[in-house]
Specification:
This protein is an alpha+beta fold. The protein has one domain. It contains two helices and four strands; from the N terminus they run ββαββα. The protein has a four-stranded antiparallel beta sheet with strand order 2-1-3-4. The longest helix has 25 residues.
Length: about 80
């Protein structure tokens, strides 16, 4: 599963929509397996540079959000 996370108006946000993404200070895309292993991470400072703590916050948001997505996907297919 994949999830976009970013820093929008100074706040970390999961699942950015187009309007948020287009003006976010930082934008990241996170792809993980169903077991939580990393497949891909791409993050860009679009409006302002970000530090390691902000990156970790985005990573934590992504891990939580992707776990929720995986649970919903499994439920949808009856697993």
């Amino acid at each position: 599963a994949a999830l976009s996370c970013g820093i929008y108006q100074g706040l970390p946000v999961a699942d950015l929509d187009y309007d948020e993404d287009s003006v976010a200070d930082t934008d990241g895309n996170f792809v993980m397996t169903g077991s939580g292993k990393l497949v891909e991470i791409q993050a860009t400072a679009e409006g302002a540079a970000f530090d390691e703590a902000e990156f970790q916050t985005l990573m934590d948001l992504a891990k939580t959000g992707i776990a929720e997505l995986v649970a919903l996907q499994k439920q949808a297919v009856g697993l």
